[in-house]
Amino acid sequence: MRTYLDFEKPIADLEARLEETKRLAKTNNVDVSGAVTALESSIDKLRRDIYQNLTRWQRVQLSRHPDRPYTLDYISLMCDQFVELHGDRTVRDDPAMVGGFCEIGGQTVMLIGQQKGRNTKQRQHRNFGMPNPEGYRKALRLMKLAEKFNKPIVTLIDTPGAFPGLEAEERGQGEAIARNLKEMFMLTVPVICIVIGEGASGGALGIAIGDRVLMLENTWYSVISPENCSTILWRSWDFKEQAAEAMKLTAKDMTAFKLVDGIVDEPLGGAHNDHQAMSHILKETILNLLNELNAIDPQERINQRIDKFCSMGVVVE
């Protein structure tokens, strides 16, 4: 059963009417094709009107939609083969960070991403998509493995942040993320990073240093979530919508600030509305970027990567 957000309720009402009309037609053997067509047209128009005028907070809500595809969903839909690799070779395997070699459109790539859970048990197992230090160390190990075999790297970012627990800090959370930043700048293979949901703080940045950094249309990328920003500024979560507007954290904002390289369009109604279509769009985007990046000399790629990030936030008066 589909989950509807508050601003999607008008769509839910029309879709319920459509289903009821179809049910009555089937039960009474009545031709209602005209009414069905009219309702489908109304639903399509309403969906377009709503999704063309989303606020920043509504896009944050969409990035967290419980039906939205996660990393493993994209892997199953995009990849012809996938061999998951486990462990950081130091502490343990972190289920919040998944990765391994996969085949996309005939090309072998190392695909790494944060993974959330669908239900309570899965969320606990995946730690709500919040990696521990060993998750970032596993990611770096896999990146180095990809570099060894000269295979490109694709990272899918979807996390509310790195795990902030005491045990994570004791095992070097900050150091693990910082090391990833340093090492990713110097990788000799193409690196593509895509925000597929939430992109919060260093937890996202730990796998987000790439030649091309993209965001899906209904995602966000910022140093802090709107709720936590509201808590700091207003001592309450009640101002999260105002915080989201002030933070300018959407894909369109990040592209305007030149903090990401582009936006990946989602199907009408959002990625959660059509997993198959979204996976096809993402797959084509990745393959096009790989063709573009493979044509660039490795050292030139590194230089461009460094220059791109060093130019961020520079102000000349």
Would you kindly provide a written description of the structure presented here, covering whatever features stand out?
This protein is α/β, with parallel strands linked by helices and 317 residues long. It has two domains: 6-53; 59-310, Alpha-Beta Complex (2-enoyl-CoA Hydratase, Chain A, domain 1). Helices cover 49% and strands 15% of the residues. The chain is built from 14 helices and eight strands. It has helices spanning 9-28, 33-51, 56-63, 71-78, 120-125, 133-148, 166-170, 173-185, 201-205, 226-234, 240-247, 251-256, 275-294, 298-310; strands spanning 81-84, 97-104, 107-114, 153-159, 191-200, 212-216, 220-222, 262-264. Strands 1, 2, 3, 4, 5, 6, 7 and 8 form an eight-stranded mixed sheet that branches. The radius of gyration is 21 Å and the shape is globular. The mean pLDDT is 94.
CATH architecture of the largest domain: Alpha-Beta Complex
Number of individual domains: 2
> What integer is the average pLDDT?
94
* Assembly status: single chain
